[in-house]
Amino acid sequence: MASGTKGRTTLEVGADGVAIITIINPPVNSLSFDVLFSLKENYEQALRRDDVKAIVVTGAKGKFSGGFDITLFGGIQGGQLAEPKPGYIAVEILTNIVEGARKPSVAAIDGLALGGGLEVAMACHARISTPSAQLGLPELQLGIIPGFGGTQRLPRLVGLPKSLEMMLMSKPVKGEEAHSLGLVGAVVAPDQLVSTARQWALDILEHRRPWVATLYKTDKIEPLGEAREIFKFARAQARKQAPNLTHPIVCIDVVEAGVVSGPRAGLQKEAEDFQKLLRSETCKSLLHIFFAQRGTSKVPGVTDLGLAPRRVKKVAILGGGLMGSGIATALILSNYPVILKEVNEKFLEAGIGRVRANLQSRVKKGKMTQEKFEKTISLLTGVLDYESFKDVDMVIEAVIENVSLKQQIFADLEKYCPPHCILASNTSTIDLNLIGERTYSKDRIVGAHFFSPAHVMPLLEIVRTNQTSPQVIVDLLDIGKKIKKTPVVVGNCTGFAVNRMFFPYTQAAFLLVERGTDLYLVDRAITKFGMPMGPFRLADLVGFGVAIATGMQFIENFPEQTYKSMIIPIMQEDKRAGETTRKGFYLYDERRKASPDPEVKKFIEKARSMSGVAIDPKFAKLSEKDIVEMIFFPVVNEACRVFAEGIAVKAADLDIASVMGMGFPAYRGGIMFWADSLGSKYIYSRLEEWSSLYGEFFKPCAFLAERAAKGATLSAPVEQAKSKL
Ligand SMILES: C[C@H](O)CC(=O)SCCNC(=O)CCNC(=O)[C@H](O)C(C)(C)COP(=O)(O)OP(=O)(O)OC[C@H]1O[C@@H](n2cnc3c(N)ncnc32)[C@H](O)[C@@H]1OP(=O)(O)O
Description:
Elements: E1 8-13, E2 18-24, H1 33-48, E3 54-59, H2 73-78, H3 88-99, E4 105-109, E5 112-114, H4 116-123, E6 126-129, E7 134-136, H5 150-158, H6 160-168, E8 173-174, H7 175-181, E9 186-187, H8 193-205, H9 224-241, H10 247-261, H11 263-278, H12 281-295, E10 315-318, H13 322-333, E11 338-341, H14 345-364, H15 370-377, E12 380-383, E13 394-397, H16 403-416, E14 422-425, H17 432-435, E15 445-450, E16 459-464, H18 470-482, E17 486-491, H19 498-514, H20 519-529, H21 535-542, H22 544-557, H23 567-573, E18 586-588, E19 594-596, H24 600-611, H25 617-620, H26 624-644, H27 651-662, H28 671-678, H29 680-694, H30 702-710, H31 718-724
Parallel strand pairs: 2-3, 3-4, 4-6, 5-7, 6-9, 10-11, 10-13, 11-12, 13-14, 14-15, 16-17
Antiparallel strand pairs: 1-2, 7-8, 15-16, 18-19
Helix pairs in contact: 1-3, 5-6, 6-9, 9-10, 10-11, 12-27, 13-14, 14-15, 19-26, 20-26, 29-30
């Protein structure tokens, strides 16, 4: 059995009689079993030693602890790693030894105190933090609940509503807020942290400060009747926000058990439920997403070359439309000076207005001060020519999807920008080789595909051609991280990774309704599956103009994979363009609330007759499961093509692209992970059956056929699978 060997704690006793126990396990001082056992041993030693009067627990290098070592969960789930009996750490170590000690201990928190890290700190008799420290219990983002007593101690320190919010939203608080909540006793500068904690521990010993065993605190817990109302409300909210997830409800149940039956009973239930949740599919999927997200910035042949990102001091953006203004907002929010170029005064004014509005909305929501607003907007300069492009380090073109216009722009950019300048396009579908056809410096051309609204959506698709230099990719990865996006590096083709997966999603929906499935039923089934909205509601949101323009690109480039439906063009003829015209597949009131429109039926009938298909009674009676599979298996099929073509380097990158670019539910692990949970054979056989009944659109690709024949997973690396085959 693997031991989870990693990390340790150290013990150092000062002349003042305070023992400092330091957690050491880079990079985030996570709590491996070795760290936890070493913590126990050092505690026991400190309690035994006569020269130790009190204890301070802290973390090395400015980080208290990022929580239990997540890399060990896989081993526990797979049975390769032995784990202590339930409650051993929460009860025997943290409650009986740390909290129950005859010597007081204080946690000195800088940097991170997350998950198990905060749980260790809460077992101490007091906590001191720095202002920038982050304290939280984010376990629910991994599909589990806190397992080291956090469900019992956090409510007793900050009250039920706040503790439930912090756990259910996986939302940490910073030092000052932690102080006002009562989670920490004082906030001090980092250089005073340990000395203050030492003194605090001695003060507790000498009764100058209270000696608090948090588990038995009751003053912050609401009376039972009120508590029950809080739990009821929290359950209703959790069910509304994530109807497919059970672990938020389990978390509330466990907190309630402690309030109703006492904290020891609460600890017992926490331990049992933690074990169960750790083995759930939701936890496995969310863990996969955690690591996949961190893996996207590791690109073989690019990030392993030892290249350091160059400093980008100034960025120019071409086009101040929805995308350009969103990108400009994202950049100035991260302190990049930006030049926004438009073709005339009117458009320029409108573009700058959009950026201002994006920032103003933050001010309105209390997320930005007026002072910060002024400072941020001052980083934006509007221009009408290329004069000021001579010293920019990166240009992002964000004009309309018109090939010849983009070709002209890139040829111009080469003339006006310095030779080191990165030439990026925000195209969502057009092949970059086409865009750069009239340029010489093709190594500088790269795709920077943002998703709308660009200052909000978390994904950045970085598109490389065969000629894009690794340096340019490293630079863009760095910028992506600085503007808080998750970058995914993909190869060049029409639609790249995200839009190639989106295309069959919409197409399958058209096929279904033309054959008789109710369109609102399709949207309902897909939202129940966990997508933020169904394909028809999405088409309304994106707008029919964009849908037709991108659709044309696909039809031209992948004719054999296309289901040719006329629904959208027919509806557009009727002056429907989606949500902007308040009429699309839905009707929209002035508050943008969507309601079904019975008139849409007639457009579907017309499209049906143009496609030459008849209503099939089977389609009118499809179960929700069938709808989900008929919509998503073509997406899986396309993801397989994208993977097999090398457009995505790793299947996990497609998982992230689907979660962050399409809204695929993270708790299903992303498109490829989800597909593997169903099995390549099953998906292949269903697609094969539908393709014989309903046409080429469903035809499984060679990659899928091959993997299904061998019973291989879809996510296995292409080379590895090849060698297996
Ligand atoms: C029983 C208990 O209740 C159960 C638990 O404690 S479960 C764990 C609860 N803790 C968490 O959920 C925190 C998870 N981590 C994070 O949110 C973020 O990593 C962070 C805020 C700590 C740091 O973020 P950031 O500075 O952006 O760095 P990030 O790239 O995410 O992480 C740095 C490295 O630390 C690793 N890491 C982060 N947290 C870790 C953890 N808890 N265990 C093991 N490794 C961890 C990351 O995988 C990454 O490794 P890599 O360099 O090999 O890719």
